[in-house]
Specification:
alpha+beta; three-stranded antiparallel β-sheet; 25% helix; 52 residues; 31% strand
Length: 52
């Protein structure tokens, strides 16, 4: 998250990472879900660029 906040006018408090049971997670910015990872997924380069 710190890498994301360096490129935009966000603070780390604007982001929330919600972990699942088996490697799943969702990343939220304020009240908007901006990324959802399933247990078999791995974030691709395109996913990372979309987040930036």
């Amino acid at each position: 998250v710190s890498e994301i906040t360096q490129h935009r006018d966000y603070s780390s408090q604007d982001f929330h990472l919600i972990e699942g049971k088996q490697g799943e997670f969702t990343l939220w910015k304020d009240d908007e879900k901006i990324y959802d990872k399933g247990n078999n997924d791995f974030p691709s380069g395109d996913d990372v660029i979309d987040l930036l």
